[in-house]
Amino acid sequence: DVKVTQSSRYLVKRTGEKVFLECVQDMDHENMFWYRQDPGLGLRLIYFSYDVKMKEKGDIPEGYSVSREKKERFSLILESASTNQTSMYLCASQGALTDTQYFGPGTRLTVL
Amino acid sequence: DQQVKQNSPSLSVQEGRISILNCDYTNSMFDYFLWYKKYPAEGPTFLISISSIKDKNEDGRFTVFLNKSAKHLSLHIVPSQPGDSAVYFCAARGSGTYKYIFGTGTRLKVLA
C-alpha cells in the first residue's frame, strides 16, 4: 500500500511566522503535489514537483514555496504566514505511469 | 474561473437507493477524469476513473458515465450504503500534464 505521511495533523502559527509542512511518500513516486482545501473551493493546486529539485507552480502559488531535495520528501514553506493561509493542506504523490494520486491525511493549519 | 464544477454541494439518499453525483467541465481538452472520496480528517482516496475514449466505466457498485458532447460526467452508486457517506470530488486533466483540476465537492449522506 502507498503511504503518504504529513508531519503534523494540526498546526497553529502566528502571523508572520515561517511555516514548514513536510510530506513523505514511500512508493518511489516521481510526482508530488501540494493542495489546499477550503470550503466551497474544493482542492486547489499550490505547487507540484515531477523530479528531485524540479518544481512547477500550480494555480495558487503566491505566498508559498516548495523544496524537493530527496525523491521521497516534498516540503511546503510559508515564508511569512498570513491569516488567509488558514486552511487544510493536502499532499499527494503519483507514479510516472499512473493517473492515481495518493493523498496524505492532511494538515489543518490555523494562522492567528 | 471554475473549469470543473460540482453544482450540488450536498445530496441525501436512502440506503439501498441509487446515488447520482454530477460534474460538469468547460475545457474540451480534458481527456482523463477521476472521482475521489474523502472522509472527515482523512485525505481523499481514489475511487474510479474514466478516459475520454470511453463513455462508461464500472467497478462494483460504482459506475462513471462520461458525456463528452455535454462536457458532463456522473458517478452512480448502486446500492448506496451508509459507509458511502463522504465528500466526493471529481477531477480532470488534459493530456501531457499531471496537473488535475478538482471540483468543489459534493457531500453525500446515505440515510439508514
What does this molecule look like?
- The complex is a heterodimer of chains A (112) and B (112).
- In chain A, 0% of the residues lie in helices and 56% in strands.
- Chain A has no helices and eleven strands.
- In chain A, the strands form two sheets. In chain A, strands 2, 4, 5, 6, 9, 10 and 11 form a seven-stranded mixed beta sheet that branches. Chain A has a four-stranded antiparallel beta sheet with strand order 1-3-8-7, with no helix packed on it.
- Chain B has 112 residues and is mainly β.
- Chain B is 0% helix and 56% strand.
- Chain B is built from no helices and eleven strands.
- In chain B, strands 2, 4, 5, 9, 10 and 11 form a six-stranded mixed beta sheet that branches. In chain B, strands 1-3-8-7-6 form a five-stranded antiparallel beta sheet, with no helix packed on it.
- Chain B is globular.
- The model of chain B has no long low-confidence stretch (mean pLDDT 94).
- At the A-B interface, β4, β5, β9 and β10 of A face β4, β5, β9 and β10 of B.
Helix-strand layout with pairing:
The complex is a heterodimer of chains A (112) and B (112).
Chain A: E1 4-6, E2 10-13, E3 19-25, E4 31-38, E5 42-51, E6 54-57, E7 65-70, E8 73-78, E9 87-94, E10 102-103, E11 107-111
Parallel strand pairs in A: 2-11
Antiparallel strand pairs in A: 1-3, 3-8, 4-5, 4-9, 5-6, 7-8, 9-10, 9-11
Chain B: E1 4-5, E2 10-14, E3 19-25, E4 30-38, E5 45-51, E6 56-59, E7 62-67, E8 72-77, E9 86-94, E10 101-102, E11 106-111
Parallel strand pairs in B: 2-11
Antiparallel strand pairs in B: 1-3, 3-8, 4-5, 4-9, 6-7, 7-8, 9-10, 9-11
